[in-house]
Amino acid sequence: MTYKVASFFSGIGGLDLGLERAGFEVVFHCEVKPFCRDILQQHWPDLPIDSDIRVLDDAKIPEADVWAAGFPCQDLSLARMGPRSGLRGSQSGLFHDFMRLVRARTPRAIILENVHGLLSSHGGRDFTVVLQALDELGYGVAWRVLNSKDFGVPQQRRRVYIIAVHRDADAAGQVLFEPERSGGDTETRGPDGKKSPSIFQTILGDPRKGPLVKSVAHCIYAESARHTGTDWSRNYVWYPEGRVRRFTPNEVERVQGFPDDWTRPTHFDEAKSDRIDSLRYHAVGNAVTPPVAEWVGNRLHNVLQMQDQEILRGSVAAE
Fold first, then answer.
1. Annotated catalytic, 36?
2. 32-80 pLDDT per residue, tens
3. Which of 25, 7, 3 is nearest to 15 (CA)?
4. Which CATH class, in words, describes the domain spanning 1-178+198-319?
5. Domain boundaries, the chain
6. pTM of the entire predicted model
7. Catalytic position from the list 30, 36, 73, 219
């Protein structure tokens, strides 16, 4: 069975791409940024797309089993300088607009993605707001911090994934967690030794000719006051003779797990040609890592199938 997905805060479709690879069908997008909308329409030309969740009428959203939302992280990110506004902020606070739509339609399952700073924002109170909002509507909820580097992507990128399944807390947990079994006694603690080297200290490339890069990139930010699309001091390529350059847009896409040229527009205003690279850097920095979304999607797809099989068996037994 093919399960359908409605996507909100879609960005350039990282969450959607991963879910499609897991067997889902994306049927709707909602994204406010014009450049990102252009990229979405480039890859999903036949899908309805809305631009402003604040005024979106729930009747315009096609029927979908799963709603997926990587809601804005700007007011929650630990990389942000100064106090965090959290869910009171103008960007991350759009979560409440998403929940307005959820209340109206009650999708079967929800996937939420955000920076792990959501867990600590306002001493954890913002995360409590998220959990309570879902609980009040009858959703069983599970959450887990996943790191892109653990999914075949060369980037240290920790994000919290929240799975909500209506009237089924066990199903939500089955998506993000596996039961663990021990093969015997746990290993005793050994003597303290040298501290393990940083994962960023491993260098790849030709030491004589270059180029050289760190084997794992630092998290690519788009909204940080310290590390923006124009501040590439942490992620760069260098050569033995001393030349240093930033990652190209395609290299940033690869570090995020996207296909090459995913964010390269096929058509764009020539007057904006000098801004295209900046727009690409920014959009990729805000994106969900597709391989992580694919892993979550595969597990959710299996759980939904198991639920449907249980329902079918119950119906047959009742006849």
1. no
2. 999 999 999 999 999 999 999 999 999 999 999 999 999 876 545 555 5
3. 7
4. alpha beta
5. 1-178+198-319
6. 0.88
7. 73
